[in-house]
Amino acid sequence: MTENQRLKIVRKFLKRTQVDFASSIGLTQAGYSDIERGKNNVSGKIKILLKREHYVNISWLESGDGEMFLPIGESQDVKEQQLILSLRSEIEKLQKEVNQLASENSQYREQADSMNQIIEKLKAELNKK
Q1: What does the pLDDT look like over 37-73, one tens digit per residue?
Q2: Which are the contacts of 68, defined by CB distance < 8 A and separation ≥ 6?
Q3: For a FRET experiment, which of 26, 51, 110, 122 has its CA 20 to 30 Å from that of 72?
Q4: Residue 23, CA atoms < 13 Å, CB-side half-sphere
Q5: Where would I find the beta strands (DSSP E) of 1-129?
Q6: CA 4, 77, 74, 94 torsion-angle sign
């Protein structure tokens, strides 16, 4: 099994889409897909991000040796690690949603301001007559 295949196993284990997982390590979905398909290799930078963001054991990723994930802390077991990773995923999703809502809010405000300007111009025209 290649490290590209093991990377896909990590993503599926974390129950993440290619889009979400790619984003968590600074890639586009297309770039990440190329790695999973073996078109591109897992770079050193990506390995560092996988270790930092998802506690992936790089030895396991490269050779299959050891556990898939590094211990987060000595007193934490695998379920606690999974919970922390799940919570991080949920935080990322919520942050994306908040950003989207903020963007939509800004657009609605711009539309409302534009409509108010039109209303004021129409009122001014009516007052002239």
Answers
A1: 999 999 999 998 898 889 899 999 999 998 999 876 5
A2: 6, 9, 10, 13, 56, 57, 60
A3: 26
A4: 11
A5: none
A6: positive
Structure tokens at 38: 């073996």
Considering its fold, how many domains does the chain have in total? 2
User: Structure pTM?
Assistant: 0.56
Q: Which domain does 126 fall in, by range?
A: 72-129
For residues 91 and 60, state if they share a domain.
no
| Residue 28 Cα distances to 22, 24, 25, 71, angstroms | 6, 10, 9, 28
Identify whether residues 97 and 39 lie together within a single domain: no
> Residue 118 is encoded by which pair of tokens?
């039109």
Amino acid, single-letter form, for residue 44: G
